[in-house]
Amino acid sequence: MPAHRIAVVTAVTALLVTAGAGAASAAPPTPAQTPKSPVAVGYLGAVSSIDADATAIGTRVLREGGNAVDAAVATAAALGVTDPFSAGVGGGGFLVFYDARTGKVHTLDGRETAPKTADANLFVENGKPLPFDAAVTSGLGVGVPGTPATWQEALRKWGTRSLARTIKPAEQLAKNGFTVDQTFHDQIANNATRFAAFPSTRSLYLPGGAPPVVGTRFANPDLGATYAQLAAKGTDALYRGQLGEDIAKTVQRPPVDPASTLKVRPGNLTTGDLAAYRAIERDPTHTEYRGLDVYGMPAPSSGGLTVGEALNILENVDVAKLSKADYLHYFLESTRLAFADRNRWIGDPAVNDVPAKELLSQSFADTRACLINPDKAGTSPLAPADPRNPAPCKAGTTGAPTPYEGENTTHLTVADKWGNVVAYTLTIEQEGGSGIVVPGRGFLLNNELTDFSFTPVTPGVPDPNLPGPGKRPRSSMAPTIVLKHGKPFFATGSPGGASIITTVLQVLLGRIDRGLSLEDAIAAPRASQRNSATAQVEQAFLDQPELAALKAKGQGFSAAPAEIGAATGVEHLRDGRWLAAAEPVRRGIGSAAVVLPGTWPWER
Ligand code: GLU
Fold this sequence. Notes:
Elements: H1 3-25, E1 39-49, H2 52-63, H3 68-82, E2 92-99, E3 104-110, E4 124-125, E5 128-129, H4 132-136, H5 147-158, H6 163-176, E6 178-179, H7 182-190, H8 192-196, H9 199-205, E7 217-218, H10 221-233, H11 236-239, H12 242-252, H13 271-275, E8 280-282, E9 285-289, E10 292-296, H14 303-314, H15 324-345, H16 356-359, H17 362-369, E11 410-416, E12 421-427, E13 480-484, E14 487-493, H18 499-512, H19 518-523, E15 527-528, E16 535-537, H20 539-542, H21 547-552, E17 557-559, E18 568-572, E19 578-582, E20 591-597
Helix pairs in contact: 2-3, 2-6, 3-6, 6-10, 14-15, 14-17, 14-18
Glutamic acid binds next to loops.
């Protein structure tokens, strides 16, 4: 950058810092006034999340000189307040970080873990798997939360600020309140029956017996106090202190209203399980695709490995040159195959021997790619292959379908002025998690353990995702960072349970191969083929002119229960600016922002 530009950048940054500091000490902004836009372009860093307050807090951290990790944690803590049915200290997640100083990509696994006493029969009662809903709203489904440890570890390793300082804006947001939007209201309404069964959840989210009215202010002082405790005492307050004791008590004796008819099974999570928890730094998955380097989350998430295998399969065709119908056919077939392998091989690497290197090898993908018939859809469930003994073009015999996973996490993406990038997906599993707010603490407990298979998915075929002591359930979360010549190109991620993988792949293909801008790739109509007879699709996907051609190839479709994914992303544009992109429609529109919008005066 020429010297005169550096001088202006410094001056502008100083101005912005002053403005930010002033804003921080003034009364909290009214969220209704917080602008919410799904696209923003400009300088000095970018934040994209589903929520305007969370994005505003993250952007303020960048403006005040924090780095991408500081901003990601601050944004996530704010999402724990405004998007509490998807995220919060009662849950877990996975964070991918590009370090501009070293050019390396790191990841943190903050996945929830099963108690030490869990075994393969965690969700089996009288010889039968529990009904899914019974496991969701229970103590049994609650894993040791990983989110506080993730925040602490990310800041300690790569951040520039203390946890106390970083979560302060979220503490204030919880105490002062924010304006209820339609999504917040609807997520409570969707869960009203089970929320009503727990006095702690009911009094917080169903004040007066109904969800808070859209447009009114909603505060969560208990959560504010929880954040204040984490700030004062560190994460030990939760993993070794009173907060943890309250979590264990709540899981072991779910605080259900005695008048409720809901049967809520207790779990056996102890303070010892909490004390044993660690967020784990893991090597990222790495896939080369069209000369780019795609980094993602390794096991126990299946995100990076499954997206990576699908990309390697698609290296066998020139996706950019295909007709749109053929492109969509190959997209659907690539995940049909990759999910067959995912379901057979991926679990917690501490317990299972996950053939990660082999699943990501190009030669293995080539043996799978040749099973794709350009004119005819495969018949699901396709059987998995053995990546350690690849047999070219050989279809196996026993298929492994994909079990159900909740679909309501949240993803945030951040970049800073130094070029650091964070892609972070966090969750409490189902919308509303277990439905149980820890009394007096203001946060919902996760139901992440229901991501385990309750019984082997395919009788007679080993299932790496059965519950076990201290085990982490397989995830689909796929925070992803793409580098070009070693520098950030773009980063993305999405909610959506197992459809996270297909959504992230679709965004990657849209951006890399199909000539779409990042915001258009995020907005595109979605389909999710996960080795099932039919792909789940959004209505907008069915409305496309290519549908007849896809049906003629034998592709089957079924309507997704709701929209698929609510992705976010950031891109480093060729002119040096950052683009922040979020959903333009889904989940009430996401919120993208940059530190300094627009262009420099001399560029106008
Ligand atoms: N539990 C899911 C997973 O770990 C994510 C939850 C969601 O998308 O709602 O893959």
